[in-house]
Amino acid sequence: MRPDATDRRPAYQQIADDLRHYIASDEVEVGDKLPSLTELQTKYGRAVMTLQKALDQLRNEGLVISRQGEGTIVVKKPEAHAGDDVPSPHELRQMFDRINTVLDDLSRRVAAVEAEILGTTPAEPQPDSADH
Questions:
Q1: pLDDT for 65-121, tens place per residue?
Q2: Which fold has domain 11-74?
Q3: Distance CA 16, CA 103 (A)
C-alpha cells in the first residue's frame, strides 16, 4: 500500500493507519516484530523520516516499542473502534430529527411546485401517526 496522493492526510498518517490495521489483524500477535525500516521503505516507497514519524505515532498510542538492534515490537493491539466517532443515542436522535425536519420542508416545497404546475391548491402534508 503506497500512500494515496488523493488523501489529504500526510503520508505518515496514512502509513500509521495501515500499520495500525495490520497490528489489529490476525496476522500479528503481541510480541511480534513489525517489518524493518528497509522493508517498510520498499512497501511504502517513503523516506525513513516519514516511516519513523508513522512509528512514533504508534509508539505514542502505546501499540509498539522500538529497541535498538531489535526492531519495533507490538506490545498491544488497538482497541476496537478506538478513535471512531460513534454517536450516542441522543446524538442519533438529534440527527434523525434534523433529517426529518429537512424532509418535511422538502415535501412541502415539492407539493407547492406540483400545485403550481397543476394549477391546484397544495395539500397540507398529513402528520404520520408514528410522530405522535
A1: 998 888 999 999 987 644 455 666 777 888 888 999 999 999 999 999 998 898 887
A2: Arc Repressor Mutant, subunit A (1.10.10)
A3: 40
pLDDT of residue 6: 85
CA–CA distance, 17 with 7 (Å, rounded to integer)? 12
Query: Does pLDDT of 19 surpass 90?
Result: yes
Query: CB of 41 within 8 A of CB of 27?
Result: no
Q: Residues spanned by CATH 1.10.10.10 within the chain?
A: 11-74
What is the Cα–Cα distance from 38 to 34, expressed in whole angstroms? 11
Q: What is the rounded distance in angstroms from the CA atom of residue 53 to the CA atom of residue 58? A: 9
Q: Does the pLDDT of residue 131 top 60, yes or no?
A: no
Contact predicate 9/57, CB 8 Å: no
Measure the CA–CA gap between 3 and 9, rounded to whole angstroms.
9
Whole-number Å distance between alpha carbons of 19 and 8: 18
Q: Which residue has the cell 488497538?
A: 78
* Element containing residue 119 per DSSP (H, E): none
d(CA 65, CA 61): 10
